[in-house]
Amino acid sequence: MNDTIRLVGVRARGNHGVFDHERADGQDFVVDVAVELDARAASGSDDLDATVHYGVLAEQVVAEVERDPVDLIETLAERIAAVVLTHRAALATEVTVHKPQAPITVPFTDVSITIRRTRGIDAPVEGAA
């Protein structure tokens, strides 16, 4: 059984979307990230290097939202998942990207995509030699 670190409601402004006004004006995105890991080594040693530093991860999530625009929130979610899996302790991740200001013509509260990714054999790992 894996343990989970969750970041919920990470907010950042990005210029993602298929419409010109989305690219020009930008909008707020909200990201939830769950990171599966085995926390026994970290809890046994009380060593930050044996887990995922959630403060660093939150900054990385914001950086991904703020960087070069993409058309789809699916693409943005993939980018964020790839960053999560660079952390040595991360075994899998679930990433939800919310786009609460999406250009939808009917009343709505939120639109989001949730993806789940696991570390593959060739996934890069932070600090790996």
Key terms for this structure?
alpha+beta; elongated; four-stranded antiparallel sheet; 129 residues; 4 strands; 4 helices
Notes on the structure:
The chain has 129 residues and is of the alpha+beta class. The chain contains four helices and four strands. It has helices at residues 20-25, 40-45, 54-66, 73-84; strands at 3-14, 27-37, 92-98, 112-118. α3 runs antiparallel to α4 (73-84). The longest helix is centred in the middle third of the chain and has 13 residues, at 54-66. It is elongated and about 50 Å long. The mean pLDDT is 93.
| Radius of gyration over C-alpha positions, nearest whole angstrom | 16 Å
Strand order of the largest sheet: 1-2-3-4
How many strands appear in the DSSP assignment?
Answer: 4
The percentage of residues in β strands lies in: 25-35%
* Coarse shape: elongated
**Low-confidence parts:** none
Helical amount among residues, as a percent range? Answer: 25-40%
Order of helices and strands: EHEHHHEE
Mean pLDDT: 93
End-to-end distance, in Å?
28 Å
Determine the number of helices (DSSP H or I, runs of at least 4 residues).
Answer: 4
Main β-sheet description: 4 strands, antiparallel
Helix-and-strand structural type: alpha+beta
